[in-house]
Design brief:
The complex is a heterodimer of chains A (about 240) and B (about 90). Chain A is of the alpha+beta class. Chain A has two domains: about 1-110, no CATH class; about 140-235, no CATH class. Helix content of chain A is about 30%, strand content about 25%. Chain A is globular and about 45 Å long. Chain B is built from one helix and six strands, in the order ββαββββ. With about 90 residues, chain B is an alpha+beta fold. Chain B has one helix spanning about 35-50, and strands at about 15-20, 25-30, 55-60, 65-70, 75-80, 85. Helix content of chain B is about 20%, strand content about 40%. In chain B, strands 2-1-5-3-4 form a five-stranded mixed beta sheet, covered by helices on one side. The chains are: A alpha+beta (about 240), B alpha+beta (about 90). Chains A and B meet through strand 4, helix 2, strand 12 and helix 4 of A and strand 1 and strand 6 of B. Strand 12 (about 175-185) of chain A pairs antiparallel with strand 6 of chain B, so a sheet runs across the interface.
Chain lengths: ~240, ~90
């Protein structure tokens, strides 16, 4: 399980044993449950640990806080209620393997999106809540997120000020890049992953506003591609 | 580790969560929709951000995915505000 705190992204509990913080637990087993935001106040105990283990909160909830403890690797913390009824169970071999793969996400050698500031980590935490584990893993390791718009155009979003690549299907049904779009925050100091969140939300829910706002750099002639798709797009923009 | 100055996000029944993207990552605010005063505060905050050029995307209580919001909806479980954007 990967633990995200308000200032650190870690699989090691050393960064989360602090007072007054909020962490989000992500399940290595995607089918286990939805993500759960865990809050605690004080009395987070420090425990000796090794990286990539699975952690959970103790099911003993006190008025002053919740005791953080380590449980056996391969055990997954399952969802709790607001009143703090938590539990856990053991993973199957298949899910244990998935758990190990997920743990590798914390290896800096495989991650292309830097997590160098608390602001960026918070932005990644928000993005993680919006997409699947698989998509988030791809984002961290490949530095891109793919979104399909209502027009069936495929948008590849990258963090920061990088342009959005737009792919359309050609006559053979294969996606080929047709243009690049540039939409950025007015305030350039916003964390790179927040730009991904902005583009994803706009493309999914207001694709045409996004396109009309963007500076467009054409790469290929739309006529080479699926005429139905292009016609539908033009009709909607008009 | 720096302590967060933001109110912890609490996913409780009856809460409205605002997540506002910005230079500090995303600022989070929680409102109780069962409290009229807090609903008013949430509404004021909502329109204040829209005036500043933010875009709002909400999830309603029926679990419907994010959709663009032009009007305040106290039934929205969660609202993500995207800071003002321009063509690059």
């Amino acid at each position: 399980m990967i633990v995200l705190s308000d200032a650190h992204y870690t699989t090691d509990n050393s960064n989360v044993t602090t007072s007054s913080c909020t962490a989000t637990s992500y399940y290595a087993n995607a089918s286990a449950s939805s993500n759960t935001v865990i809050s605690w106040d004080e009395n987070c105990t420090t425990i000796d640990t090794t990286a990539y283990s699975v952690y959970t909160l103790d099911d003993t909830i006190t008025t002053t806080g919740r005791i953080y403890r380590q449980i056996a690797a391969g055990t997954v913390y399952v969802t709790g209620t607001a009143s703090g009824n938590f539990g856990y169970y053991s993973l199957s071999k298949k899910d244990l393997l998935k758990s190990k793969i997920a743990g590798n996400l914390a290896d800096n050698r495989t991650i292309k999106v830097p997590r160098n500031t608390p602001e960026e980590i918070k932005a990644q935490e928000l993005l993680r809540e919006m997409i699947t584990s698989k998509e988030f893993r791809e984002y961290l390791t490949k530095g891109k997120l793919t979104v399909i718009g209502r027009t069936n155009l495929k948008y590849v979003i990258r963090p920061g000020h990088q342009m959005v690549q737009v792919f359309a299907k050609d006559k053979l049904g294969k996606y080929r890049i047709v243009e690049k779009l540039c939409v950025v925050y007015k305030d350039g100091k916003i964390p790179p992953t927040d730009a991904v969140i902005m583009r994803k939300l706009m493309i999914e829910h207001d694709e045409f506003a996004f396109r009309s706002l963007a500076n467009v750099y054409k790469i290929a002639d739309h006529n080479e591609f699926d005429q139905h798709q292009v016609s539908a797009l033009r009709a909607r923009i008009a | 580790m720096p302590t967060s100055e933001l109110a912890p996000l609490q996913k409780k029944e009856g809460n409205i969560n605002f997540k506002v993207t910005g230079p500090s990552g995303d600022d989070r605010f929680t409102w109780d929709r069962r409290d009229l005063d807090q609903i008013k505060q949430a509404r004021d905050k909502f329109y204040d951000l829209l005036k500043k050029g933010y875009l709002a995307f909400g999830v309603n209580t029926k679990g419907q995915k994010h959709s663009k919001m032009g009007r305040f909806d106290p039934d929205a479980e969660e609202v993500i505000f995207v800071a003002p954007v321009v063509g690059g």
